[in-house]
Design goal:
This protein is an alpha+beta fold. It has 16 helices and 18 strands. The chain folds into three domains: about 180 residues, Beta-Lactamase (2-Layer Sandwich); about 80 residues, no CATH class; about 160 residues, Alpha-Beta Plaits. Helix 1 crosses helix 6 and helix 13 packs across helix 14. The longest helix has 17 residues.
């Protein structure tokens, strides 16, 4: 939010407000094309229309040492505690200000020592430590004049006014309560500030986390659910960069900025988030509009971690062989397209395909039972997987047949060496319980693109080589024939 310098209030404006003459205030607001404010001295509960403001007024009144005297500054802290703290501010001179010698401290030196989290969330930033000059446009002179009026007439004053256009609040209900030493002008103010915002109210009652950001990725509004989800206090979240909490999302929105025309939904985006040492998945539903020609985005955030985990589990079931835990036929096909197009870690295009078939597996099942046969299949799958590099893949193709995908293999010698390594890994007997079962393996192997221009044709060549190996007695390795022969 860009802050414009605050203009000095006309000298007569505080005195006019103290006297109840609001004509100059109305002219100030009308010149800014804003609705004139409501200003009421000594308001009652019906005028305040807020339990928070009513409680503040009651506590201030109870602390007065005399009916015509404000409470001493030491009593101000009691109004800044408990459930009202989010909606109160404290305006005081800087802590390094020397003791008063009877001369009032200029109001422009006063700073906010307390700025409630609820106020900051609706205003867009925490103004703790800032002065009244931080308020832009006509609001700054109005605030300055009202505080000066309270110093002239140390009584409670209630105002209701429109905020700057950059603040997403329809109006503010503000109760200013002065504190002063006996016989001295007020040197401290506690302010109750309640936003009246249809947007903010709707956001706060939403179950899902919701943020409003500008086109630069600054958070302008955040509901309570967003503060709970993203962790920091609301006053820290408001005005912060979106990427500090949801990295990469600003770039996504800026990529959609040209699509913002009127009001509309702009799609959904999933992103990971580390929360409490646990990785979660958020879904951001993005909507957009334009205000004063600039894009404004509304983000609704949902924790879809459980859904993502279910989808991952279903994908695992769909692509993983239930018995052995390696890929199944469908899972291998998910890997193949990248193998057809990717450049391998050896900077060579191509892959090798090896089909492994167990010799005499039916006899093993017949003689020792399916439990022993299943255990041998799991053992074979484990040995094959342990023999592969990180970017290779192995799948159970069906029954006792396995297919191995070897990235970066482009010549027959490398293919034969890799297949021989797999054959060697399967030579030792498989120990199942107290028994050892030895099975032979027949292997057929082929290359892409030497033996075919796609996976199916390379597989057909490897399968033909496997058929030749088994036809020659089995328990051997056979490469596909050179297509040039």
């Amino acid at each position: 939010m860009a802050d414009a310098p605050t203009q000095s209030a006309p000298a007569s404006l505080p005195a006019a407000i103290a006297a109840g003459d609001l004509a100059a205030v109305e002219r100030l607001f009308l010149a800014a094309k804003a609705r004139p404010p409501l200003v009421v001295w000594r308001p009652d509960a019906a005028m305040l229309r807020s339990p928070v403001l009513s409680r503040l007024l009651d506590r201030w009144t109870a602390a007065r040492p005399a009916p015509d005297q404000p409470p001493p500054p030491a009593r101000a802290e009691m109004l800044l505690r408990g459930t009202t703290a989010d909606w109160t501010m404290q305006l005081c001179p800087p802590l390094d200000t020397p003791p008063a010698d009877g001369t009032p401290i200029p109001l422009e030196r006063f700073t906010y020592r307390h700025y409630g989290a609820g106020i900051a969330r609706h205003y867009g930033r925490d103004m703790t430590g800032e002065t009244l000059t931080a308020f832009p446009g006509h609001i700054g002179p109005f605030f300055a004049a009202v505080y000066e009026a309270v110093r002239l007439r140390p009584e409670p004053i209630f105002t209701e006014h429109e905020p700057p256009a950059t603040v997403l609040v329809r109006s503010w209900r503000r109760l200013i309560l002065p504190f002063a030493e006996p016989g001295q002008p007020p040197c401290c103010f506690v302010v109750g500030n309640i936003p009246e915002s249809a947007v903010g109210t709707l956001l706060d009652v939403m179950h899902d986390a919701a943020l409003v950001t500008d086109g630069d990725g600054r958070i302008r509004l955040a509901n309570r659910a967003a503060s709970d989800l993203l962790g920091p206090a609301a006053s820290t979240l408001m005005g912060a960069r979106l990427d500090d909490h949801l990295p990469g999302l600003t770039a996504v929105m800026q990529g959609l900025a040209d699509e913002v025309d009127g009001v509309g939904a702009l799609g959904r985006h999933e992103l990971p988030l580390l929360r409490a040492d646990r990785q979660i998945t958020l879904e951001a539903s993005i909507g957009g509009t334009r205000v004063a020609g600039q894009p404004l985005f509304v983000l609704v955030l949902r924790d879809v971690t459980e859904r993502a985990e279910r989808e991952q589990a279903l994908q695992t079931i769909a692509f993983e062989d239930e018995l052995t835990g390696i890929l199944n036929r469908r899972g291998l096909h998910q890997v193949v397209p990248s193998a057809d197009r990717r450049r391998s870690r050896r900077s060579q295009d191509g892959f090798g395909l090896v089909i492994v078939d167990l010799d005499g597996f039916k006899a093993l099942n017949d003689n020792h039972g399916h439990v022993a046969g299943d255990a041998v299949l799991r053992s074979v799958a484990g040995r094959l997987a342990a023999s592969l590099r990180g970017d290779d893949a192995v799948a159970r193709w069906g029954g006792d047949e396995f297919v191995v995908l070897l990235h970066g293999i482009t010549n027959p010698a490398d293919l034969e060496a890799a297949a021989a390594k797999l054959q060697q890994a399967l030579q030792p007997p498989h120990r199942i319980g107290d028994a050892a079962h030895r099975v032979g393996v027949s292997i057929g192997a082929a290359l892409y693109p030497s033996h075919g221009g796609d996976f199916d044709s390379v597989f057909a060549a490897a399968d033909k080589a496997l058929y030749a190996a088994k036809g020659a007695g089995g328990n051997r390795l056979q490469l596909a024939a050179d297509p040039t022969d």
